[in-house]
Please model this.
Amino acid sequence: MLGDFEYARARSVKQGCKLLAKAGGEGAVLAGGTDLLVNLRNGRASAKLLVDLKSVKSLDRLTVSPKNGAWIGASVPLNEIALHRGLRSRYPGLAEAAWTVGSYPIRNRATLVGNLCNASPAADTAPPLLVLDAVLEVSSPRGERTVPVRDLFLGVKRTSLAKDEVVTAVRVPPVSAATRTAFLKQQRVRGHDLAILNVAGLYDTESGSLRVAVGSCAVTPVLLPPLPEPVRTDAGIDDLARALNEIAQRTVSPISDVRASAEYRRALLPVLLRRLVETLLQPGEVRR
Amino acid sequence: MSERELRYVGTSVSREDGLDKVTGAAKYTHDLALPGMLHAAILPSPHASARIVRIDTSKAQAIPGVRAVLTGSELTVRLGLYLRDKPILANGAVRYQGEPVAAVAAETLDAARRACSVIDITYEPLPPVLDARDAVEPGAPLVHPDLGSYEWMKGVFSPKPGTNVAHHQVIRAGDVERGLKESDAVVEATFTTAPVQHVPLETHAVIAQALPGDRAEVWTSSQSPHTVRHLLAHAFGLPHQAIRVHVPYVGGGFGGKAGLHLEPLAIVLSKAADGRPVKLVATREEEFNTIPSRQGIRSTIAIGATKDGKIRALRATYLWDAGAYADYGVNVGRAAAYSGAGPYAVPHCSIDSYVVYTNKVFGTAYRGFGHLEVLWGVERAIDLLAQKLGIDPVELRRRNLLHEGDRTITGETITAGHGRPDLCLEAVAKEIGWGQPGERPKDSSKVRGKGISVLHKAPAMPTSTSCAVVIKFDEDGAADVLVSGVDYGQGTYTTLRQIAAEELRLPIERVHVVNDCDTSFTPYDWQTVASRFAFMGGNAVIQAAADCLRQLKATAAQAFETRPEEVECEDGHAFLAKDKSRRIPYSKLALGYTFPNGNSVGGPVIGHGRYIATGLTHLDLETGQGHPAQFWTYGAHAIELEVDTETGEVEVLKVATALDAGKVLNPKLCQGQVVGGVVQGLGSALWEGFQFSPDGRLLNPSFTDYKIPTAKDTPHEIVPIFIETPQPDGPYGARGVAEHPMISVPSAVGNALHDALGVDLFDLPLTAERIQRAIEAKKART
Amino acid sequence: MSAKLHEITLTVNGREERVAVPAGMTLLEFLRERLVLTGTKEGCGAGECGACTVLLDGRPVTSCLVLAVEADGRDVRTVEGEARDGQLSLLQRAFIEENAVQCGFCTPGMIMAARGLLLRNPDPSEEEIVEAMAGNLCRCTGYEAILTAVRRAAREEREAR
Model:
């Protein structure tokens, strides 16, 4: 048995919020369970009530449109996200990130919302959602609100959400056809592994805006401060990468842990950033 | 053996147990349940070294469903295969973080775990000793202050009371200082390996029941039913017949299930719970943190050679980080030492192998038994020597490999039947295209390199190691083979089935190797370790089958009214040699023959065969000279890999592995051993290793941070190559190959990295981080 | 300590099961202990090794991280359901003949991961096979024979249609 907790299947978001509120801070939303149940088993989390919203019809929707962007319901598993044709073509960086979480069977259960709410600094879906400026739709007994992803993470495994709040979806703003996204993850093995370092980038070839986010390098995933100038499509890769690296090294604060040393993470940063800008500025060239 | 063509031996017969395994019908200890069974949980120590001041189990006893709570103070038994240093539960002191301190048996696993969590223990933490170098310093904290009071196997092992040295093995051949002085080039370097875990997919599991009259019955996921029984009998002071051990299907062992692990604890829990059966299964975290591992090593190796590349001397000091208990570690330290010069002719050799206690999870037997760890250093040192001499690494090895007539460092003379390391070397060098430039990587940030290594190992086993086999027949003329060796995946039951079918002259469908071992009726086998089961079991099966044929022929001769010499057997029939039309099927002979008038002769056919190690001697305690090896298996690896020079990541492109198997009894099974062993070797080479906090806590006791190779991490290509130089006393000329594919894999990787990057690495695992750091350091120097 | 029981109805290997389970019981525990279908194994309890892989509504999942209550109204298939009427599937036969089975402890999970793959994609590419199988750890075989068996089963099952 994983624990002493109780389980309730909510028929609606409203009911789910009520159940969580009644649990007085000792409730948790059970999405895919691939983080929550692991943490309940090893004692890193405790809960008296698990509230399951996966039967709520609206939450399993995934829609992508050029005009409205993407709407990813809280129950949508990562495999569905990673393999969704529309999402892959519009937001390849996000699809790629979703695809690298865990293993195939894990991704049949794990959700995007769960990956975010678990709030590991290494969360793979966080960097792409940061550069895309995505927004969480949140419900509680007090009503609805939205939380930009950039305001979600407070620290290791800590979010700005209240204990009785339920994330119902992630909304990703529409992107123009001129926008490119990419994601890179550094692991120890090629099989399923947590990130030693992960980076995501969004480049708008028309406006020259380049947004970069870095994970596993601080207590939260980090959106880097912007470059002073817009980036031309014919920009020199070396200079651009160097500039980005300078910003990144100043912004992140990696630690040494069982996965990698701080020095190695700092050494990998320029490598991954360079490869990221190569992918974003020279997408025709297949690197790996 | 007759001139008849082999039907089964040498072919890729499929496993008989495959059916049970692919349908989920195979029952492992994890799957078994007995009526009235209780579930047990253990409470591990949070400290690497501490005095146990006080234990209060009253809250645990009060949890509903709890039937027994035990701590070390109630248990006086001391365990240890070679050196009896280990309590069943920590008593008075804890010696490693993860050591079991208390245990509970309850109606449910949840109740047992809950009870463990409310056991109140007061510890007085003590400064732990975590590095073997610190442990051998005078004044170091003693892991076993009472070492002098323990029993140990005299004449074989030499612990040093008052120190942390559990064993010191010496090899002295020739005059090493003179040899080094005579050398034109000497290289000396220090190499390390991190402790690793076997990671069997089935964790350790046992069900034990204490029976009336001081008896016990045990079901255990083990490689050695008779050793389990023997050690339990010894530990509890009982006759062997008082203990019965069953071994069902086993989900992997790799040496980690060779000896005694959770069985004693489960028995004492059952006794304390009024004889109800108790099931104790290690969680994956306990498998990493509590169950033993492969000890780490720090080896300092000096090799000297003349300028034309003839090795004159090898001097080595090994510091084995044995962890908190001696277990198999002392024997690893002994056996790896006598192999410590590699498969080379080394006239002057001096090896000091120290097995040292530290306050960490202890080491046990692991595939390769110390040879991967030692040859990591030796094979890297050979390449360093090649660099210094300006001689090609393959050529340097070629000039020094053992040949017929050479002597090993323990004084054994190599014969024609020993096997051919040179042929193994040539085969892999050719397969990898040694000396030819490989394809250039497409990516400019990547470089490629090739590396070579050789290996050798003999079974590390007592001089009296033996195996017995019984073959009995069913009414329908089919044969059952009873053995106490265990097939935990390596496929030996299939090999023995092939040999039995061949020798009994029976179609293989009519031969069955009984899967379960039971010390009550499967005949004695020492342990399924050391790559000796196919060799000894095969020989015993051949003898048992001959015994059966003798009986069948004697009975048939009576039926034919002739002499047994006139009777032949084939295809499950006995027939008259000079008139093949006169034939009797085994089904009419196997339980005796009945004449038409009703008179019966003969009787149930039961054949027995046995094999005992021959000609082995102990190693001289002063010089290490002696004859420890029943046979040597030689091999070589050649690896081509690609390195990302920016991140340090390694991608293994190709591994060619050659082994002199003597005779490949089943090609597919042998290939399976090579592919599996190479991948496991790459695990040790590139990713696996325990990490400890400064206070001795294991930081990666789970798959989250202890990474083993997945299906995405394998080489693009593994090419197994088998040389067949017959082993004169092996079954059909075969020798063991089970451990060998793993040995020297890290060495070849390290050598390939030098070829690719021009950097020399000395410490396993060769993580991307370490490789990247070495690349940066090289850049900074140039 | 007496947990509330939830009534659930689910189909396991084609047979309907109506049971009452506590919230904290995983699907893996339910299968192994309640239904005594011990083919599905526990290798780590944390979703990392894949030994507990079963099909949930036709999709491979690590059953150690699924609560039994979550399987209410769902369809579950385990290795015990792979053979039909005592006949091994082509997939099972390929595993035996390619020596993809050594100790066998990872085998049920491997077979279910492969079955999940072939259900959704009867003609998988090499990359798709590896991706589908890579979540299952094996220590014995080095994976090569397992991938060969899956590749062969895919081909043979297509040909058998």
